């Protein structure tokens, strides 16, 4: 399985919603607590496109049908809406549960960072906020050049427990 990468389109929204919702109810990678709809994600996607933030997907080819399937997505978005933060972006990366731990996320991250660097210095630094309850997730960011800059204790609540969030930073 060799993934290919491209800019996300509206045609990817159903797959993006499926991947994201699979993390919302059982997981802690996002602090959304209710499943998202395609309409919710369409509004999100339109904002990303309007402001020219990168949003890429990873596809793999189904060996039986030869159809392409979107299995991961990654995007940048405002770290903070105040203008002084315009050179800083927050990165989100989600991989379909059947394709985790096989390199798709790492390759998509690298492709997203390559596209980001092509924007001619628009971004100076990238931030990833990561819940600390999953050591595989926190190791991922460190293994890909992001440096731990700090942890906020008990800032999100899911499943009846308070969760810490660590912030990882990559200087471009």
TrEMBL record:
GO terms for molecular function: acyltransferase activity, transferring groups other than amino-acyl groups. Coiled coil: none annotated. PANTHER family: N-ACETYLTRANSFERASE (PTHR43072), UPF0039 PROTEIN C11D3.02C (PTHR43072:SF23). It comes from the Eukaryota. It comes from Polyporus arcularius HHB13444. This is GCN5-related N-acetyltransferase. The keyword Acyltransferase applies. Residues 3-166 form the N-acetyltransferase domain. Keywords: Acyltransferase, Transferase. Transmembrane segments: none annotated. The keyword Transferase applies. It holds the Pfam family Acetyltransf_1.
